[in-house]
Design brief:
Layout lengths: L1 H35 L7 H16 L2 H25 L6 H39 L2 H7 L4 H37 L6 H11 L2 H27 L8 H28 L1
Length: about 260
């Protein structure tokens, strides 16, 4: 009997914890939307902070991102072409590369890289600000943390995921063309036709929406995890670990839902 009671208490505690976390995330998103909708939010100071966040999030890792995308893309493209040639589907190889690599794998890899590089840093910064009472000090000085600390990080994360995904997609298309046709310009016509047939307007809108959700996940979840940190310094690493686990689970969930909506 005691085992059943303990199990019920454990499950109940988990359910309450998930509900509290979900409510906190939704409440934070409502505050974000409220701040975004206010015209006074978009002043010079906010825009300058957003530009700095984009620089820290996307520009500083650009060389690493390009090298990483080129390396993994070349390997996957080579494997795809070899497999397609062996099974007699080489004519559809270009479409397979675009659909698998550009539309699905690339956005996920981009969001994951930004999460590891910037999401963890955001989580740590917010947690330390919470522990050291810096957020309370900002509010006391009538400096809104949402406008000058949180919103720039969120907008910068979304813009970074979108811009890096576009850049990575262009690089992959160039690599795919070189792998299939080499430097022969005769392949431009069929390659362009394939791209036009794949990149329909609904698909592009869906890709943009997915990138926006990825950007929200890699910034919002670390911020919320940082705000939940108790005011004890030794809890900061625990907060970062919790936040990164939430980010990873959210990225997987977004990708699975995206695949389900497109192919099921």
């Amino acid at each position: 009997m005691s085992t059943i009671v303990n199990m019920v208490e454990h499950l109940g505690g988990k359910a309450v914890g998930w509900w509290t976390t979900s409510y906190g995330i939704l409440s934070f998103l409502v505050d974000v939307l409220s701040t975004v909708s206010r015209p006074a939010t978009w002043n010079r100071a906010t825009l300058d902070t957003i530009v700095k966040q984009i620089y820290f999030t996307a520009v500083q890792i650009l060389h690493v991102y390009v090298i990483y995308v080129l390396a993994i893309s070349w390997v996957i493209i080579t494997i795809t072409l070899s497999t397609a040639r062996n099974v007699g589907l080489f004519d559809t190889a270009t479409e397979m590369i675009i659909r698998v690599l550009v539309l699905e794998l690339l956005p996920f890899i981009t969001a994951l890289l930004i999460a590891l590089r910037s999401g963890s840093a955001i989580n740590t910064e917010v947690a330390l600000m919470k522990v050291n009472n810096e957020l309370d000090a900002l509010s006391h000085c009538r400096v809104e943390p949402m406008q000058f600390e949180f919103l720039p990080r969120i907008v910068g994360g979304i813009a970074s995921v979108l811009s890096l995904t576009i850049l990575g997609g262009l690089l992959i298309l160039v690599l795919a063309y070189l792998a299939i046709y080499g430097f022969d310009t005769l392949g431009l016509a069929p390659f362009t036709i394939t791209i036009a047939s794949v990149f329909s307007l609904p698909l592009l809108l869906g890709l943009a929406v997915k990138c926006v959700f990825f950007g929200l996940a890699v910034t919002t979840l670390p911020i919320v995890a940082g705000l939940e940190t108790p005011k004890k310094t030794f809890m900061v690493p625990v907060s970062v670990l919790r936040g990164m686990m939430r980010v990873f689970l959210a990225l997987v969930l977004i990708e699975v839902l995206s695949l389900a909506l497109k192919y099921i």
